[in-house]
Amino acid sequence: MYIKNIQLTNFRNYDVLETEFHKNVNLILGNNAQGKTNLLEAVYISSIGRSFRTNKDSDLVRFAADFAKLKVSAEKEIYDTSVEIIIKKDSKKSIKKDGVIVKRTSDLLENIYIVIFSPEDLKIVKDEPEKRRKFIDRELCQMKPAYYESLNNYKKILLQRNTYLKEETIDQSILDLWDVQLAKYGARIIQMRKVFIEKISRISHDIHESITNGKENLQIPYHPNVPVLESLKEQEDFFYEEIKKSYGNDMKQRTTTKGPHKDDISFIVNDINMRSFGSQGQQRTCALSLKLAELYLIKEETGEDAILLLDDVMSELDIERQEYLIKTLKENQLFITTTDLDEKLFTAFPDAKIIYVESGKIKDKK
Ligand SMILES: Nc1ncnc2c1ncn2[C@@H]1O[C@H](COP(=O)(O)OP(=O)(O)O)[C@@H](O)[C@H]1O
Ligand SMILES: [Mg+2]
Fold first, then answer.
1. How far away, in angstroms, is 311 Cα from ligand 2 center?
2. Atom 11 in ligand 1: residue holding the nearest Cα
3. Phi, psi values for residue 95, rounded to 5°
4. Contact at 8 Å (CB) between 115 and 294?
5. Residue 124 burial (CB < 10 Å; 0-12/13-18/19+)?
6. pLDDT one-digit tens code per residue, 260-274
7. Among 3.40.50.920, 3.40.50.1820, 1.20.1050.90, 3.30.450.40, what is the CATH number of 121-303?
């Protein structure tokens, strides 16, 4: 699949913009703070209905404007699709897929698949666990609307339960209402994460082996805060019991201490944990293997070639890694941003469309 065209109104630092994209490689060039990442952000939102860098939709509205609008048209294997999103500063966003209003954001999913690789992702191995959970959530949400629903419900209930735990007097029977719901959605999250992490670990392993010419054996184990059980029913019952058992701790800390909101994954290369003992180069290669694994997994599960956004990462990778990326990604539409006029990129992608960005305006050369 590939994005054919984008139209923006009042999006970030763009007032009006319409442009066509190349079905393979789009090189987005420009100095800092001109709007390169903003353009990728607009493209990305068409996949899951939200940004990769802010949870506040109103940030996307151009300063001094009261709404932002974006429309993305994409060509897919079987049929074409369009996504139109209007974000108003003071009300809910409205989303149209193929011209029809979608009621829930989750109805937008399973349509356009996009993977973003940014300098933030290069740090995923050594960052705090929250970043790794965010990665898992983002990818699973994109592929599984059921996960998106469970995660949203879990987060809502977790927030309410934590707020209630801060009250002076706690009524056990009220708390139990949340415990039941937390166990229900938490169990679904744990079970889906388990399956996802096993798959992504298997694929990353093979990619990593190939990038390192067979020298490195990468494993990505799941470290669930609540142990994984066989069936969803067992998982739900077990998690519910765990919540009950941690009541003392929860009361002491005035917060929910057990659950998938404390999960983590690790990156193990040749039996060594990369978070503590990996070199920066090794950590980055792990991140690259992980990102490429997402593309393969999407292909495996949906048959579609996902679109890859490379935001300022090319220059962060060494030549060998860059070349690996270039030679592996023949089938995927790429958007590559960079500040410097990298001769290597021009040579690697002679047919690429080159888009110059300056103060929220673009000049395209092909
Ligand atoms: N809501 C907004 N309205 C207007 N300008 C914005 C908005 N959000 C960000 N910007 C501007 O966009 C610019 C950053 O764009 P970005 O795409 O991140 O730059 P880069 O080209 O370095 O990737 C900054 O100058 C910032 O002030
Ligand atoms: Mg940028």
1. 7
2. 13
3. -125, 135
4. yes
5. buried
6. 999 999 999 999 999
7. 1.20.1050.90
